[in-house]
Automatic annotation (TrEMBL):
Keywords: Flavoprotein, FMN, Monooxygenase, Oxidoreductase. It comes from Halopseudomonas sabulinigri. InterPro entries: Aldolase_TIM, NMO. Gene3D superfamilies: Aldolase class I (3.20.20.70). It holds the Pfam family NMO. Signal peptide: none annotated. It comes from the Bacteria. This is Nitronate monooxygenase family protein. The keyword Oxidoreductase applies.
Length: 324
């Protein structure tokens, strides 16, 4: 399958693995690259730029195919060393960066000067248009279904993707709720030129996370995620658990008075406990509604090949067969 996304990133299949905190290590990024997709190392999971440089080196030892790095720009009291992370990306010879969160305009010139293709993750058409205007090469359009931060507009992909297609000139991938060949065929039909997956890639053999996390995703249905932190305008879609129920109870009780300090126990420092030690009630961790479509833990290569075969079958047989 050839699209503007496969051409842009020099990959075989139009499938991207989105950055994931404490999941996007070299093991997963290289497995996706070896399967013909675009894997992403998550920069901010690495404690400092030197550690990111090392992770990029490790990934390069595991694959000779292209892979990228996710750079998430968060509002935070103590800003991460972004110039240092960017230097590690450039020196590591990485040619694809997924930006997310705040507008990446400040960092685009240096990335572009170094021949790096930038795909910006957006949850709204207006943000995707902004990304296009400032010179991003592509957009990852993240619908309301997505695991992680869906923004505050709550527009699902059946509307968001065709709206993006109406407005954008740069290519975009569909993100949020993508799991299989049906997702890919639908994404293409709605105007995208590929898809980005988060949650689906966690439930794979190579994802370097505790087995409990993979089992929780397989066990979950599409009804098992919740939106938290909406009163703080920092909405996140997470897997429901005891901590999340407690957090939601605080949100109900405190209403508009809720402050970050009130929920710090349920959201701060949670990822290592969930992803490394498998303490599944430790706090709120991102997970998409797509968990309802995930029933196995294949290798990344099996998953990607299955997606491509299924999409091929849908497009060539099922859909073409409906035409007279
Ligand atoms: C556990 C987890 C952690 C994530 N961490 C990040 C992150 O650090 N930065 C980012 O840009 N997106 C992050 N995301 C979002 C994904 O990159 C992707 O956009 C999203 O998962 C797509 O929705 P899906 O889960 O329905 O496939 C995370 C998602 C999950 C499930």
């Amino acid at each position: 399958m050839k699209t503007r996304i496969t051409e842009l990133f020099g990959i075989e299949h139009p499938i991207i693995q989105g950055g994931m905190h404490h999941v996007g290590y070299a093991e997963l990024a290289s497995a996706v690259a070896n399967a013909g997709g675009l894997g992403m190392i998550t920069a901010l999971t690495q404690p400092n730029p030197e550690a990111l440089a090392n992770e990029i080196r490790r990934c390069r030892e595991m694959t000779d195919k292209p892979f990228g790095v996710n750079l998430t720009f968060l509002p935070s009291v103590k800003q991460p060393d972004y110039p240092g992370y960017i230097e590690a990306i450039i020196k590591g010879g990485v040619k694809a960066v997924e930006t997310a969160g705040n507008n990446p305009a400040k960092w685009l010139p240096i990335l572009k000067e170094n021949g790096i293709k930038v795909i910006h993750k957006c949850t709204a058409v207006r943000h995707a248009l902004k990304a296009e205007a400032i010179g991003c090469d592509a957009a990852s359009v993240d619908g309301f279904e997505c695991g992680g931060h869906p923004g505050e507009d709550d527009v699902p992909n059946f509307i968001l993707l065709p709206r993006a297609a109406e407005e954008l000139s740069i290519p975009f991938v569909a993100s949020g709720g993508m799991a299989d060949g049906r997702s890919l065929a639908a994404a293409l039909a709605l105007g995208a030129e590929g898809m980005n997956m988060g949650t689906r890639f966690i439930a794979t053999q190579e994802a370097p996370v505790h087995e409990n996390v993979k089992a929780a995703i397989v066990a979950a249905s599409e009804l098992d995620t919740r939106l938290v932190m909406r009163p703080l305008r920092n909405t996140e879609r997470v897997m429901v658990n005891d901590a999340v129920e407690r957090l939601l109870e605080k949100e109900r009780r405190l209403g508009a008075d809720l402050k970050f300090e009130d929920i710090v126990d349920e959201v701060a420092g949670v990822y290592p406990k969930i992803m490394k030690t498998g303490e599944m009630d430790a706090g709120a961790w991102s997970c998409g509604m797509v968990a309802g479509l995930i029933n196995d833990i294949p290798t990344v290569a099996e998953l990607v090949q299955r997606i491509m075969n299924e999409a091929d079958g849908i497009i060539r047989q099922r859909l073409a067969g409906m035409l007279s």
